[in-house]
Amino acid sequence: MSIDEIVHTCSNEHVARAAVASIGVSFASRVRFVADLLGVSVGVFTAQTVRTFGEEASAGARREVVRAMVRSDQPILRGLEAILERELEDSSLLDRGEWQSIRPSLTSRPDLARDCCCP
Fold first, then answer.
1. 53 to each of 2, 56, 102, 104, 115, how far by Cα in Å?
2. In the prediction, which pLDDT does 95 show?
3. Are 42 and 20 spatial neighbours (Cβ–Cβ below 8 Å)?
4. pTM here?
5. Are the C-beta atoms of residues 36 and 44 closer than 8 Å to each other?
6. d(Cα 118, Cα 51) in Å, to the nearest integer?
7. Using an 8 Å Cβ cutoff, are 17 and 43 in contact?
8. SS3 for 54-114, per residue?
9. Is residue 47 a contact partner of residue 12, using CB atoms and an 8 Å limit?
């Protein structure tokens, strides 16, 4: 199992969406939240993140993902999760120009913080 296999399969937004859903509800909800903020679907967010990782990841980042995959019952899903976790934890995620702007409907909702369980 390799990162190239993750990039090859999960570069398709439909496969990527299904893979994220199969990882688990909690994780899929986190991915959906970020994708919604970016104004893209879960599949598009995941596919673009995986392609970018495949093209730009350092050798160290690749080693971290491979380590996460070792001895996993589902190495492809575990590798995908590790790749997406890196992106979800990146505080500058929403500042990137490659993503579409945040949808106006989200920015015009003052209750958004309350809906996201923030005080």
1. 13, 5, 22, 28, 31
2. 57
3. yes
4. 0.76
5. no
6. 32
7. yes
8. HHHCCHHHHHHHHHHHCCCCCHHHHHHHHHHHHHHCCCCHHHCCCCCCCCHHHHCCCCHHH
9. yes
The radius of gyration of the chain from alpha carbons, rounded to an integer in Å, stands at 15
Query: In this predicted structure, what is the pLDDT of residue 23?
Result: 95
Domain residue spans of the chain? 3-115
Sequential pLDDT tens for the chain (119 residues)? 689 999 999 999 999 999 999 999 999 999 999 999 999 999 999 999 999 999 999 999 999 999 999 999 999 999 999 999 998 887 455 555 554 443 444 444 444 444 443 33
Closest C-alpha to 24, from 84, 106, 87: 84
Amino acid at 103: R
> Residue 17 in 3-state DSSP?
helix
Task: Write the CA distances from 78 to 38, 39, 60, 71, 93, integer angstroms.
Answer: 24, 25, 17, 10, 21
Tokens of 58: 């350092």
